[in-house]
Amino acid sequence: MPRPIIEADDCSACGICVDACPEGVLELVGDVAVAVNDDDCTACAACMEECPMGAIPEIEED
Ligand code: SF4
Ligand code: SF4
Asked: Which of 7, 9, 10, 17 to mutate to test the pocket of ligand 2 (most atoms within 8 A of CB)?
C-alpha cells in the first residue's frame, strides 16, 4: 500500500496537504501533518505536489 512520507522537521502545519488530499488521508496532529488514514492513500501525489515546504518528498510503496 502507498503512503506519504512526511518530514516532520520541514512541516509548517499549513494544512494545504490536508485540503489537497482527495481521500482524507492527512490530518494535522499538533503542529505536523500525519497520515492518519494511510490505508486510503492512492499515491495520487497531490499532497506532495501542493506542499510549499517540500515536506512530503515521496510516496512510499511497499
Ligand atoms: S498521495 Fe494522494 S491519496 Fe495519498 S495522501 Fe497524498 S494526496 Fe492523499
Ligand atoms: S502541506 Fe506540507 S507544510 Fe503544509 S501541513 Fe502538509 S506537509 Fe506540512
From this structure: 17
Q: Is the CB of 23 under 6 A from ligand 1?
A: yes
Query: SS3 sequence, 8-24?
Result: HHHCCCCCHHHHHCCCC
Q: pLDDT tens-digit profile of 3-62? A: 999 999 999 999 999 999 999 999 999 999 999 999 999 999 999 999 999 999 999 998
C-alpha cell at 16: 494545504
CATH number at residue 17: 3.30.70.20
In a domain, 37, yes or no: yes
> What pTM, to 2 d.p., does this model score?
0.95
